[in-house]
Protein 1
Amino acid sequence: MAKSDQKKIEHVEDRHEIAQDIVAIKNLKAVKQTKKDELIKDLLDEKYKTQSSIECPYPENEQYLELWKELTPREQADMKANIRVSEDGKIEMIKMHKKFSLLAAESNEEKTIIKTSRYTYFTPKAAEQECNNNGKKLLENFEETREFISHFPGTSHQNKIHNFLRLF
């Protein structure tokens, strides 16, 4: 029996009890909906602790797989629901209905583009120019950037930004 299956079997009673608690919370009439949602979220967090990791849907994408391995099962489920790797290798934000790709360019003498073994750094003006040269667009505004970051797995905004940087 696989280790993940054994973990599910060991915790089946816990998960059943959590499910009953969730139904009981939903049926409470004297409790505000926000408090119900908070209680249910706490119970679901406990449920995810009793489950095994989800299999990575894109093991061939090195960055996706590397990030995936360090996420909790709940974060993995969020990532699987929100972020996909398309056949052309782009990162697709499912709820935004948009695909994103890395912007890359060779280093230049003006030092507005610096390429290292792992990353390429751009000044804002150089990034805009390279986007125009490659027929791509940068994120348009602060709200679009915030929405983009919000779809990444993580417990805080800072953690979501960190996971975005790791994926890209």
Protein 2
Amino acid sequence: MCNINTQEIINKRLRSLPLLSSIIPPCNSQTILHSQYGHISPRGNLIIEESKIYEVLLDSQDRQFNRQLRQIEHLLSKHSIFCNTRFGYKLIASFFSSYSELEVFDALIAHGYSPEIDPLIMPRTGDKKADFKIIIAGTDIFIEVVTPRLPQKDDALFQEIPTAGTYDPTIGIVNHAGLFHPIEQKIIGEYEHHFKVYEPSFNIPTTFIVDTTYVHSETRGLFGIPDFNSFFSRYHFPDYVIGILDYWTTYNDNRAKKISIFYFNPKFIGSPKIQTQLSELMIPTITQRFLNYFP
């Protein structure tokens, strides 16, 4: 539970963000702040829980968290459809995943799309929803946003005294014996949970946007590298899957920089124009560079 001092730190920062504070209730003595670990995966591994926005507010002196909080306030002012308690509670339940979804929505709007939020994947036959649906070249496109996190055993290696092997680019700190990298496994899980269950009736073009900010490293081999180039030959996605857009944000010298790479599914049978336009989605427009990603 939150003590009085912790509550005041969190609520003082929250009060400085008018739109965010309008959709997030103040922290109180009943607010539970968890350590970031505690969820057991089906494979028996302890993985990082999603951080609540209260935990981000508590650590808002951190450069990245401070920028993300300011960015959310800015995006709420632009996209009033998200300025509601429903999205507020999503931020409470899972800050990083919700932040990625808001970023992607903003990118869709900036590139001229009119995204439908939480569209039913198979109306009248199922209740599963994608994150967004847009239209490109007269074709409906489903978008699923994925925000992977590090397993605890990997995250725990970041300490003052590095653990042996952490910085060995030939080893990395993941299990290389498996056929799929953990990030690849997460994408497979999202595909199988949301879309595969409706096959063969479902065949609407679908793409996965993966925010790897929280697992990305400039140190080659640190986490092992998901090989998205060969992913489509190792796992047989259907021909309606367009590809995977991998993007991440780096925070340096009080500036944020976005980098993105689109990996095409060679089996995709739709218009090449769809893949081309999606590949540019997370490249900030000139307007975004000046208005969104401020120092």
Protein 3
Amino acid sequence: MTRCVQVAVVALLVATPVWAQVTVDLGDVRQKSSLTADDRSRIQAYAQQAVQTMLTNTDPDRRGMVAAREHILEEVQSAENRTEAYRQAFAEETLAVLAKTAEKAVSQPARVNFVMILARLQVIEAAPLLQSALADPYPASQYWAAKGLAMLAPKIVARVVPRLEGEIADSIEKMLQTRQPTMVLIQLFDALGKFDHERAHDVLAGGVVQVAKGLDASDPVVRRMVSEAIRSLERAYSREVRPDAKKNLLLAYAALCAHIMPPIDVSPVPAGYARLMAELNASLEQITGEDVGFESSDPLALQKLALLEWVERLARTKRIPNRPEMPAAVEQAVKDGQSGGGATTGKAANATTPADKAGT
């Protein structure tokens, strides 16, 4: 499924533009710093023609569809001979047109291009349409809906719209109830990590725990997803004040520690494995101020044991609500370690906490 998303996105981005010229002339409007109602009407007429061209194009290679999309976005994103007031007005009027034509974007190419425009308009008012697009049947449009919300998140936070943050978190939670392409998960975790709302933190924690099960870190896209999840967890933990919510965020960390497995039959071992485990350990050190003796120069098996020490320490000190479910191989390793005096390496056994360093 991930490959399908990547292929669809790339194909839509690299098609050669062939533009069916829109008849509305916006030359003088583009350079105005104050727009009249008539100016906006002209912009809307332009947007209507361009969107109609995009939705009805039948070129076998979709060149006309892509060209129409890119001309719309050029009006919004290019500062060349365009004022900020004009670009803002164009984005608003285009959004109004898209909202009226959403039901006409039914084919996969049309729908994906439709959602790409929504995402790249960067207008907060596009959030409800992007939320709806999360439920699309096409992975590529789901990807752009999630990416659009991730790109909008800082603007939503800056404008202080907590209700919208909570609604988006609820929409993402519904998405996470079913298996999602990894490329989509990257954007969903990115969006959740940028929000300050408690619902976003709760959904992030639960989502990471769920996704951690059966994690295949041999896939570089999966490693990128985990890396995004770690960054989002760290930001959420640093801003969270609810004790139970902090425990759940730590539980998500613990789940990653448990399920990231170093390869036993891959040679040479991809460098991404070691970087990912080191990144996870560094984030835990950052938020807890503690050290379990993790050394990035150690063999991967010892690095894994150090990550397991994080799980055991968090459980032992009751900073997580429960010990996370672990793969069978890890459960056996923990038992073996405990029978030898604890699930630690020699370095982990000598690791320190702030209290240890203080001599208490």
Protein 4
Amino acid sequence: MITQIENYFLSNMISSFLTIVIPSKNSFPKLVETLSNIIGQTRIRGTKVIITDFGSSDGSLEYAHQESFQFSSNISIFPKSFKEGKETYHHEISQMVETPYILFISPGSILTSKDSIMNLVNGLSTSKKNFIVGTKKNKNQIADFFDNIKSLVKPNTEFELILCRTKMLDSIKIDDDLRFYLNSDEYSSLRLLSI
């Protein structure tokens, strides 16, 4: 049975709800993997994908520019250079995001189901939670998702995926390995999601 929210997504696509952010720094092959995986996700046509590059010298930023034309019929890719570092990251990202939800995903991370993004957005939109986080099950695949964790999280626990309400953007930090961690005390119960 399709829920009311799912029915709304079926007719309106996720693009009006979600912006995807992928950080990059000399991560060309991993960026290719993750972008290809995102292209295969269902119901995300037109979704804005921001590639935030932190001074790559391996062609990652150039690849993102090239793919912005190639994948334009599926998703909208916006390469953004942060050569100066992460000081202006949150401010500039917040200026580019016009959706209520934002998905941060590390390069090289693969979502196991073609419906993962739709299910994640649906899960967050129907709850009062602010975050869903994901960790890698193996080398690439993200299979373990948790929403609003408490006992799982220690200070600076790193995640490969964080979906949050855009108003919580300042709670998301990025490390030098392009993984994310939460700087927030707003965690509640642990619940494993089957995505």
